[in-house]
Amino acid sequence: MEKGSCSALCDAIKELQGLLGEDAISTDDEDLREHGYSEWSTVNIDALPIAVAYPRNTEEVSQIAKVCTKYRVPMVPFSGGSSLEANFAAPFGGICIDFAFMDHIIAVHDKDMDVVLQPAVQWMELNEKIKHTGLFFPVDPGPSAKIGGMVGTSCSGTNAFRYGTMRDWVVNLTVVLSDGRIIKTRRRPRKTAAGYNLTGLFIGAEGTLGIVTEITLKLAVIPQETRVGVATFPTIRDAASTAMQIIRAGVPVAAMELLDEVQMNVINRAGAVSRRYAEVPTLFFKFSGTTAGVQDNIRISRKIATANNAEDLIFAKNEEEGKALWTARKEALWSMMSLREPGSEVWSTDVAVPISRLPEIIEISKKEMDELGLFASILGHIGDGNFHESIMYQPHEKAAVEHVVHRMVNRALEMEGTVTGEHGIGLGKKQGLVKELGPETIAVMQTIKKSLDPYWLLNPGKIFDYGDVTLTKDISEATAASTLDHPQR
Amino acid sequence: MEKGSCSALCDAIKELQGLLGEDAISTDDEDLREHGYSEWSTVNIDALPIAVAYPRNTEEVSQIAKVCTKYRVPMVPFSGGSSLEANFAAPFGGICIDFAFMDHIIAVHDKDMDVVLQPAVQWMELNEKIKHTGLFFPVDPGPSAKIGGMVGTSCSGTNAFRYGTMRDWVVNLTVVLSDGRIIKTRRRPRKTAAGYNLTGLFIGAEGTLGIVTEITLKLAVIPQETRVGVATFPTIRDAASTAMQIIRAGVPVAAMELLDEVQMNVINRAGAVSRRYAEVPTLFFKFSGTTAGVQDNIRISRKIATANNAEDLIFAKNEEEGKALWTARKEALWSMMSLREPGSEVWSTDVAVPISRLPEIIEISKKEMDELGLFASILGHIGDGNFHESIMYQPHEKAAVEHVVHRMVNRALEMEGTVTGEHGIGLGKKQGLVKELGPETIAVMQTIKKSLDPYWLLNPGKIFDYGDVTLTKDISEATAASTLDHPQR
After folding, report:
1. Can you spell out the DSSP letters for B90-113?
2. Whether the predicted pLDDT of B275 surpasses 90
């Protein structure tokens, strides 16, 4: 029996059904499609997983990994399914591991300000459930994201300017390795200098180094007061200048988001807010902290904004409207998708640059994007030098859209930036990563990958391809195994 | 000629002198001792490096690595030499790479709020040199630490509560691999989700995975105002309760440090402050931000402190005294060392626990430490759950001191803590690390080590030993090279 072949796959599925129960492994067509295709992904491929496994605990994930290693079957982890770069596509088939039943909060350590949970906990649901402790988890990507995928893509969101990204909030991870071994990256102190930062290595590895089955997250104190304000500007450059000056004044704003006129139009049309906002370049501010601190931050920010040609800062009239406004911003992509023409597709992607270059790259990229004449908008996490383009298009317009997106990505690289600030590489940005880091740096990543996943079974084909970069002879000799074989290539 | 043997070492040195110049490689006895022994280390060993290399740039470090790999000679990086766990000791001899001549600030990107520099830049000197930009680098370990070593040990300091540790402030690293290849971990955006977090992997790896030759650091805005305040308490528990309540109130204090009565005595005796402080458990506060924000933080903190039996908050009378007070705290270890009895030695070490456990572990550990009847003190980064014990002792008292330290370390582990919050593992805490993480997790670290440094030449003997944990068969087969040989064992 050839390992990795069709009969091996059938045997693997039978063995897993024997171990986990018939119902734990699905080969239903619709199920496979839901786990291999995504309407909002920049890339979709023809291949689908050949089965979906639904483990109930870490031990079952370990059993899956052992069987998959035995039969050389790829494993692709899946939680919220909201990623944008085909991070959970299955180019080599294999088994999708869906954490749907691993959605429990295991422990809330109120006094230590941390929480232990499983991968399929949704971040907004987490915050709802721990609200009574006075604590919250501050990383805020798209509403449907779940913690497992958030770890995998090292995501962030609008709160990143104040609170940082996933890398700053994960205390430890329980990880199932390719061969089924279970490790915990570290214990539960908020700070440690003990040994290699394995936690940080698995964050952002998109499931290619190990399968995360349990996560301890730090929590933050819910601010006494939060206020959401909006400032409109004649130009994007005025808005960007305002943001930079606020940063340099040391004002601890909780978030600053740049929205273009299209995005403001989408918010007006979505109707969740009580007033109609001008459809011009706009900054959304979130001020939070003690009541006196918030007043002070507003005072300084208002002064800087008006000095940069802003109409006055308008505040949401109450907390509810503030939330509605912020939600409107966070649901930007979904709102746009609901307003698109029938038959159209979406290309939503992000880059990040050193912060001083943000106004320039946004200006040029927006001009090029507008010249497409499509329903398209720009959203920026302006304090982080990170922004998003979302473009709706009909299939025949794809080449033109792709051209504009690639020009934006290359421009970011010319400015010493990155091809992705918070979405990850997945399938969609592998070529960009090679341009960004060069073959020597990617070779180091591949060396680490090979050392931990010698049969290349964990989410294969993501971040980089197998062997598209030649390792230097010395390292190859010492690390490459003669038994190394690649699944289904 | 046998590789790794004495004649190989001589040949390696000759070859390096040919490449870098005679003066670039020292074999002077005093030089060797200064690079292999440390008065303040918890551990010292008999072995010394056999030579010290003084490279002038990344290319020269690469040449050193190539020669050392060719002759199988260990390489030990060295910058400030202030580490405490024998992190730069040379148990297998080899060549110490001292960055003394790589001490330049390469670029200050004021508008991007980052700086590019070489490993031997001292952090306080950096802050002095960039002061005119209105920016500073917030990680503040012992005053003599240099950026290279700070990356190696993933250090932090008193500012960590507000600003985080080294992991939060490094944008990218230029790294020379064991075989001399040069890589850059990533480009210069403040945020990225592109590929594996190699930056984070090299931080805290103590030079065992690669030699860091260039560092880009994020900078923060110098706060408009900084005030230093002191509150004294009847018990350590009152001080700890105050700190926890301030955290939970969401007050963004810049730093909170716990000092015991011995440390306050040391500060009084050192004489850098204008008044005599009570020699009781004490919290040092640093408040910083906008002027109004600082006032607000002080108001809330004072209220909480007095509710927890504090004498009133006393403020340094001006900025200069504030700095003097904070410097006194930061130089605690050196002040104690200058006051110790002739012939005595020092054991200075740290652990960290989940924050709610800090009062308990400090109380028990301090009691046991006091029972030794020695000149000894406790200092805590209380917001991080991290604290230090410093004990002065005569050589014959070593066993008793060791016993107390080990009990503290084991206690931290029982509380789900770590054997080191900010000093690293070095030689001193290898056994602790095995207890903390277990053999499976260390095996993963070893697998990564072997993949990047197959001949085990980079700072060998640190963090973990070669082969003290058995890898599982599958991974061993795939990664272990038949050519793998270990230097000088």
Report:
1. -TT--EEEE-TT---EEEEETTTT
2. no
Interface with chain A: mutation pick from B192, B248, B357, highest number of A CBs within 10 Å: B192
pLDDT of residue B467: 67
CB B259, CB B253: distance < 8 Å:
no
Contacts of B315 (CB under 8 A, 6+ apart): B227, B228, B229, B230, B322
Q: Specify the residue for token string 């060791």.
A: B402
Q: How far is CA B352 from CA A313, A344, B139, B414, in A?
A: 44, 54, 18, 11
Domains held by chain B: number: 4
Q: Which of A311, A334, A357 is the last residue of a domain?
A: A334
Contact residues on chain B for A292, CB-CB shorter than 8 A: 292-293, 295-296
Q: Which two tokens stand for residue B365?
A: 């550990």
What is the amino acid identity at position B238? D
DSSP A190-245: S---SS--HHHHHTTSTTSS-EEEEEEEE-EEPPSEEEEEEEE-SSHHHHHHHHHH
pTM of the model: 0.94
Q: Give the mean model confidence (pLDDT) for residues A393-410.
A: 96
**Residue A487, in any domain of the structure:** no
pLDDT digits (tens, 9 = 90+) for A452-470: 999 999 999 999 998 654 4
Provide the ipTM: 0.93
Give the residue from chain A lying closest to B424, CA to CA. Answer: A193
Helices within B371-424 (DSSP H only) = 398-414
A454 touching B, CB under 8 A? yes
User: In terms of domains, do A235 and A302 share one?
Assistant: yes
* pLDDT digit string, tens, across residues A380-390: 999 999 999 99
Quote the CA–CA distance of A4 and B315 in Å, as a whole number.
Answer: 70
DSSP state of A426: T
- The helix (H) or strand (E) run that includes residue B296 is helix B291-307
The pLDDT score that the predictor gives to residue A477 is 40
Task: Supply the CATH number for residue A366's domain.
Answer: 3.30.70.2740
Q: Are residues B141 and B95 both part of a single domain?
A: no
Q: Mark yes or no for CB contact B111/A355 under 8 Å.
A: yes
Tell me the pLDDT tens digit for each residue of A296-328: 999 999 999 999 999 878 888 788 888 888 888
Contacts of B179 in chain A (CB under 8 A): 472, 474-475
Over residues A248-291, the pLDDT tens digits come to 999 999 999 999 999 999 988 877 677 788 999 999 999 999 88
Q: Which of A174, A190, A423 is the mutation pick for testing B, counting most B CBs within 10 A? A: A190
B148/chain A closest Cα distance in angstroms:
15
Contact A188/B at CB under 8 A: yes
Query: What is the domain range of residue B378?
Result: 340-427
Please provide residue B328's backbone torsions phi and psi, each rounded to the nearest 5 degrees. Answer: -60, -40
For residues A283 and A243, the answer to whether their CB atoms sit within 8 Å is yes
- A-chain CB neighbours of B448 within 8 Å are 196, 201, 448, 451-452
A293 close contact with B: CB closer than 8 A: yes
In a domain, A309, yes or no: yes
Angle at CA of residue B126, ends B169 and B212, nearest 5°: 55
- What is the helix (H) or strand (E) element at residue B70, kind and residue range? helix B58-71
pLDDT band at A5 (very low <50, low <70, confident <90, very high): low
Nearest CA in chain B to A386: B191
